[in-house]
Structures are given as structure tokens and as C-alpha cells.
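Collaborator request, handled under Task 6.
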Amino acid sequence: MNTAKILIVDDERDICHLIQGILEDEGYETLYANSSKEAKEKLSQYKCDLVILDVWLQTGSSDGLELLDKIMDETPNMPVVMISGHSTIEIAVSAIKNGAYDFLEKPFKTDRLLVMLKRALEFSKLKDENQNLRQTSKTQPTSITGKSNIITGLKQEALRTAVSNSRILITGEQGTGKKNLARFIHQNSSRKDKPCIIVPCTEANDEATVSRFDNALISASSGTIVFDEIGRLSSYMQDRLSQYLKTGQVNNEQVDVRIISLASPDLEKKVKEGRFKTDLFYRLNVVPLSLPRLRERMEDIEILMDAFHGEFSKTDKNLSSQLGSSAMIRIRAYDWPGNNRQLKNFVEWLNITGLADKDKISADELPDYLSEKEEGDIENDGLLANCVDLPLREARENFEIAYLQAQIMRFGGNISKTADFIGMERSALHRKIRSLNINTNKTEEVNDTTKNVVKAG
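C-alpha cells returned to the collaborator:
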């Protein structure tokens, strides 16, 4: 259903009624004006999405071109389709140069008019989206928050990659910050003063999708285009992107853009299953970057919470300092399946409920979902609860096991930070861990992930 409001401007009332009937049959809402003065009044009274404007208005003067200039001055993103029955090529070129979307000569075919209007409205929508994206990119953070080894290595690789024009494939689970990393790379590249346009990929391949795809590439010229969830592209759109990569052209127009693709970790599986073209995958995957799950970088959780808190609060106080030790242990013990995005939602919830304004936040005040425990965590709770029923030596050993496991979890498996916090030498803590047979598999998994990301760089 078409919901756009279109203003028809022509000094011939019959032409206005004819076009009005065609457009209303297609579901468009229409207004019409028979003079430049009447058109200005309508534009000031109503919010129109498109204008169909005759070049020659009233007594044969080129009043339509003067009205076009006024429209472009006041609403530069307004699509204007010029029409005329007796204009020269020079006038048509002049109209398009001055901001008109296209030019249609009378008499015109209905189908051609409708296709042109549809494309003009799509183009206008894309321009608005791109303008919003550019404005957003100026205010959104373009830094990568965190000091863990895995994030430090990723930032260094991203900065090295930013200075080149190589295509990049960023993979990671939902909510890990793929778009933010893409913006970070753009902002640290030679293209930083040019557009950075993010295009959500879909399985559609209709005319509107193709038009939006082509217009996005053209609008991002000299800048960066980011294909969000590239694995969702239909086979037809994959071929269209491959064709651009081979020729550098869109509709016979040379377009220079840097391409950053974002994908879920299952993209390579799609390639093996034939759902994503192998050749395109290797063309896009020149520099692979992988974002870790939040669970794999728990050392950064306080820094991330403080950064998110800064977006929601006007105070300079760090949120992490307001969380009691029991609350912090519970936050660190949670798996965070939604990654950074879920953590940000949690911090926003703390601000909405007013808990972020308290001096101390206890574990009992946290959401119930943070209490979901893994088998090992439940076992720890049991050990602590049963200490009172055991002889001192055995109770002390059980308590040490539970206490050390909780502290290692608290610091994301970082033995050095755990040792500093509990007041032990690192070597002494390692000996204690071995003597108590404490499972540190999670620590090894985090370290292995760190090494793999650094090697990928």
C-alpha cells in the first residue's frame, strides 16, 4: 500500500485531474495546484513526500524552474519529477542539475510515470536514512572499549587495517559490537571525512531492494559501505555485489567505496553448504576480524558498564564502584548470551529503576535472570552452605575451593588480578589451585581465544 503524499503542479487542470486519478488508483494521497503561488501555499500547509512539477506554468514562463529552486532551498531532500510537453534538452539537463530527480516528457505512459515515482520515493528515503546515519556516526562512540588482551590485540589489528583500503570481514555473535568496530575502522581511515553508510542485508531481491542497494553504493562513494549481516543476501544480490567488485561500476557509473562486511560466525558454514557463494566470500574476506563473546572478555565488564552508564547518566560516577562484591560476582558468573548489547540493556535498566543512583547495589536487587547458575556454581553454593556441618580442616578446604573459584570467575579467569585482589603471590596462588585441584578450564578457554585472535591479525 502506497502511503506517500504527492503534490501535482500544472497550470492545466485537466492534466492535474488525470495524474491525480492514476496516482489515487495506486493508493497515493494527492494534492494539486495550478500555479506557483498555489503550490507554495500547499507546500507550507501540508507535508508532501514528492512533487510532480510542470516546467511551464501560467503564461508560458519557466515558473516551474523557479519553484524548483525554492523547493530545493527549503527541502533539499524532496524528490521533484519535472514534466513538460515542449521543453528542450538544455532545460531538462538544467532541471536535473538544479536538484530535480528526473524529467518526464508529455505525453507519458502511465507505467513509466509510476516506476519513476516509486524510484524517486525510494531514493528520497535512502537519502534521509543516509543523512541520519551520517549524523548518528558523529555522535556514536567510535572507540573500542576494553583493556583485556583479546580486545587490545583486536584494536591494534583494526588500526593497522584502517590505513589500508582492503576489504574487511568482521564476524561475531549478535550484540558483540560489529557495527561499532566498523565505524572505528572508518573513523581511523583516510576516508573518515566521507560517508560511512550501513546497509542492512535481506533475502529480498525485488526492484526496490536492488534500487536501494545501488543507491547506497553511489551515496557511499569515496567513503565506506558496511553490509550488515552479509550472509542474508539472496543469491541474486550476491551476484550483483560480485559484479560490482569486478567492475567497480554501478549502472555504468564508476564508484569507489571501501567495503566492510559484518557476519555471524556461521558464514563459513553457509559457504560449505552452498548458501553463500565461495568466490564472493573470498573477495570480501581479505582481512578477517573476529569479535569475542562478552563471556570471553570478562575483564572488561566493569569498563563496559561504566561506559554504558555514561550514556544514560549525567553524573561522572562509575557504576562499577556502586556494585557490591556479591552483585559483581553474580554479574561475572552470568553467561551474557546477548553479549555487549544485553549488558547495555542491563545498565539502562539500572538507570531506569533508580538503582544506579544508590550508593551500593546488592545482589538481591539484581534481575532474577542473573541468578541462573551453571552446575559448577550450584556446587559452590552447596559447599558454602554445608561448611558448618564439617570439621574445621575439611570446612576450610571446601571454603577455599568455593572462594577461589568465585574470585577467579570474578576476574574473568585472570590469575594475576585474582592474586592481587586476595593478597597472594601469583606463584603461590598457582600452587594453591593445583593443591586444591581447582578446575581452571574457563581460564584456559579465554587465553586460547585471545591467542587465536592475535594470530588472525
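The cover message to the collaborator said: "The two ends are 49 Å apart (CA to CA). Residues 374-379, 381-385, 442-457 have pLDDT under 50 and may be disordered. Please let us know whether this matches your experimental observations."
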